[in-house]
Amino acid sequence: MLRAAALGLGLAATPVLAQEAMRPGIVQSEILTVEIDRLYAESDFGKEVSKLLEETGTAIAAENRRIEAELTAEEKSLTEKRRTMDATAFRKLADAFDTKVQELRDAQDSKARTLGNLSEERRRAFISQAEPVLADLMRDAGASVILDQRTVFLSTNAIDITETAISRMNEVLPKPDPLPDLTSTPNAQVPVSPDTPPKP
Q: Which residues of 64-87 are buried (b: 16+ CB within 10 A; e: fewer)?
């Protein structure tokens, strides 16, 4: 069966190449394939989103290191106060510190999840805007279907339109909007002094 399929592909390649001369710029075929992941990753839009995500991720990581250093210093200060403080008063400060640590951890985890969600949202937006472009390419090729290359067991490179699709997406898509500033949360910027008693 595989031998027969290979022969079928070989026979189909001749009319495809012949028709390509009639409609320059895109192969003529009933079936086309596209690498969706590559279409996104190698487009100008996808590259810019990747850059923005990397910059934001780096900023969050730097903020995490800063917060960790501040909390470590605060914990050390709190430990030193323990020697001279009343046990009840110290327990209040310790509880306030534990609460602060948990709130900061939750805030930073939330930022990481938000960044992941933004990544998925930008990708979905790209795919949505890619659909009419791919539809135009399908009409230009006289095709009736475009398959994701990942689902195709065997095909000829002649029917892959990924490169052409990338070029067209670069022509029609504007640059992506900047990502929101995820490092400006007040809770992460204003440390609470260990001398500050917890609010009732």
A: beebeeebeebeeebeeeeeeeee
